[in-house]
Amino acid sequence: MTWNADKRLNEFAADPDLLLTEEVLTAARTLLDLLTGTGCVRPGIFPDTDGEILIEWSSADYVTSISVCGRNRFELMHLPGGVVESHLTTHTSAEDCLTALTQLLHIQAPIHEVVP
């Protein structure tokens, strides 16, 4: 896993105030492992107050995030700049979520690094 994501997830796991389950942590690790081979830029990785982990890319032009709710629930949200309503889809596996994210990236969200 790159981006120090494993270290970050271990820090979350050690914090009893976050109420993160092993299921959510494992699902986040699985998704982040899958993401490392895609060429995505480093996402922000944050715990939220609902016991979920948020993986997020943002700029002035868009916000794209994945809320890891558990082993079988990943919520992918995309909000392009200048748009009021976001696009939200729910996926039952990390692989399905990654497929949807990849399709979204090719269409709207430039979260891949540009290689000169």
Structure explained in plain terms:
- The longest helix has 14 residues.
- The chain has 116 residues and is an alpha+beta fold.
- The radius of gyration is 14 Å and the shape is globular.
- Helix 1 packs antiparallel against helix 2 and helix 2 packs across helix 3.
- It contains three helices and five strands.
- Strands 1-2-3-4-5 form a five-stranded antiparallel beta sheet.
- The protein has one domain.
- Strand 2 and strand 3 form a beta hairpin.
Helix content: 25-40%
- Helix and strand sequence: HHEEEEEH
Number of domains: 1
Sheet-strand content, in percent, reads: 25-35%
Tell me, rounded to a whole number, the average pLDDT: 84
Q: Can you tell me the residue ranges where pLDDT is under 50 for at least 5 consecutive residues?
A: 107-116
Distance between the termini: 24 Å
Instruction: Find the count of extended strands (DSSP E, 2+ residues).
Output: 5
Index terms:
116 residues, 5-stranded antiparallel β-sheet, 3 helices
Give the secondary structure arrangement, pairings included.
Elements (H helix, E strand, L loop, with lengths): L4 H10 L7 H14 L8 E4 L5 E6 L3 E9 L2 E8 L6 E5 L2 H14 L9
Antiparallel strand pairs: 1-2, 2-3, 3-4, 4-5
Helix pairs in contact: 1-2, 2-3
